[in-house]
Amino acid sequence: MKSDDFLSKNISNITHLLESVMSAEDLCRAPGLLQGLDARVKVATVVLFIVVVGLARSLPILGGIFALILVFVVLSKIPLGIFLKRILIFIPIFTAVIAIPALFVTPGAPLVTAGSKVIITEQGARTAGLLVLRVTDSLSFGILLVLTTRWTDILAALRWFRVPSLFVAVLGMTYRYIFLLLHTANSMFLARRSRTLGTFSGRENRRWLGQALGTTMAKSQHLSEEVYLAMLSRGYRDEGLALNSFTLRRRDFLWAAFALATASMLLWSNWR
Amino acid sequence: MGSLRFGYSVNAIVEQLAVTTFNTGRIFEASGLDYDYPGNIAALRQISLTIGPGELVALLGANGSGKSTLLKLLDGLIFPSGGELLAFGKPLSEKALRDGPFVLEFRRKVGLVFQDPDVQLFSSTVWDEVIFGPLQLGVSKDEVVSRGSEALKLLNITHLRDRPPYRLSGGEKKKVALASVLSLHPQVLLLDEPTTGLDPWSQGNLIDFLIGWADGGKSLVFSTQDLDTAEELATRVIVLGTDHGVVADGKPEEFFSDPDFLLKTNLVHEHSHRHKELVHRHQHIHDHRH
Predict the structure, then answer these.
(1) pTM for the complete prediction?
(2) Which of B108, B111, B119 sits opposite A227 (nearest CB)?
């Protein structure tokens, strides 16, 4: 049953992982620093910080930004363990494939050698380090935003920034239906297992997985057609209207000023 | 309550609609309706019926007889392959519902609760779900908030307000789906299998609620497989046959006291069942308490 277990564990682990990563309702309601801010201000300042991270060329600055993020995490009453777990899940996925080869293929001064052979160069390590830290910082800001802001508020803020309503609607629906489709995939696997004795070969498993993916896709298409009809039925006319109740308070202006000052200082240190 | 969007006066539309409904005395008029699925598979054949204000209509029929399709046609979500369908005296066509004042007028008056609540609950929270309809129909912001709160209160689900729909139980999802349509303040409620998947207690509650809701002269058209629900709720029954046409249309008591008719239309069947130690086979209708 090894390959079956592999499939089963993967499908159910992906479901649980996505559910735990994406559902942070309790944290969004915690009385922390970022939770108390207007969603528009948070979205704008997070984008600003991500731009700064993208422009940063020094490892200490990127490290300093990560330290700053951890301070925000603590002040927002998010358990550090939960936050770091979310980051560590994504960093290997996003960066390992790209960063690891850079360690070995970038020419430069030797850092790690085996006999007379240079394995890792200083420039290679720096390039890989920059990449990993940039991804870590950018991702951390994104996760910080998601953990401290209700998804509906993020979507409403995007609409306020005139992001096309179709794009926002697609984002919202993806979030809403990904769980339903994952549970469907899980149930399909359990239904198969309940009718199975013995083991399947890797080839049979791959064939089944292909069929299951096809069926899930067909189901998702049918679902999307039905959802559209349900939207039409309640008056949707290709332009989703939303009720925004944003209010800017003193703390929002203070945070925006702090973010602008910090970003300017980081950029100045970067180009100094 | 007037609308600020779309350039139409909601009050004028409501008045016009009241006049239209009053003049024709009918909400829906269908004559010779056909509907085919892709590949020329028949879903409905030669459906002719009228539905008036204040009627509580149960659509009965075996699986695949076309009940859900008929409800979608009545809600103007799909359009017939043949025949004519009028709503409030006006043709319910793709063109009429594409733009113009009629679409707004129609959507404000007619609400459909889908069989699968997951289809209907597409917003990120319960609150967003219940205010979606009024928002799209151009109701003022204060009125949107008031209608949303009222719908949640009506179905006793105010505590679910900030919950994401995918985390709700089946019964809760059904209630939220109903609330999301009730916030439109419809005059006609179309429900596709409203009691399916609910436990007996929730079924009873829903039936009580719908009887109370329809008491003020509103119309209800619902599909069901459950004869008890039809008998308790409906004042009129329309039965669709396996040939996808109307095989009967009348008062519930006319049909439910005719076992041969119920058997012929696949609404009951002979099956084996147990009476203590005795297992035997005959058609089966249960009496029930009210």
Answers:
(1) 0.74
(2) B119
Q: What share of chain A is helix, strand, coil (3-state, %, to 5)?
A: 75, 5, 20
User: A23 in contact with B at a CB cutoff of 8 Å?
Assistant: yes
Of residues B124, B132, B144, nearest to A175 (C-beta) = B124
The ipTM assigned to this model is 0.81
Q: Cβ(A121)–Cβ(A111) under 8 Å?
A: yes
A129, amino acid identity: G
Q: Which domain holds residue B156?
A: 10-264
Relative to beta strand B56-61, strand B236-240 is parallel
Look at chain B and report how many structural domains it folds into: 1
What is the CATH number for B151?
A: 3.40.50.300
Substitution target from B8, B94, B136, B180 for chain A, most A beta carbons within 10 A: B136
So what's the pLDDT on residue B14?
47
- Longest pairwise C-alpha distance within chain B: 71
Going from the C-alpha of A190 to that of each of A5, A187, A215, A219, B258, the distances in angstroms are 11, 5, 15, 17, 44
Q: What is the mean pLDDT of each run of 10 residues along chain A (272 residues)?
A: 61 66 69 92 96 93 95 94 82 75 77 75 86 92 90 85 84 78 81 79 84 87 89 81 79 96 92 74
Nearest chain B CA: its distance from A234 CA (Å): 5
Contact between B111 and A233 using a beta-carbon 8 Å cutoff: yes
Query: Are B124 and A23 within 8 A, CB to CB?
Result: no
| Res B40 pLDDT > 70 | yes
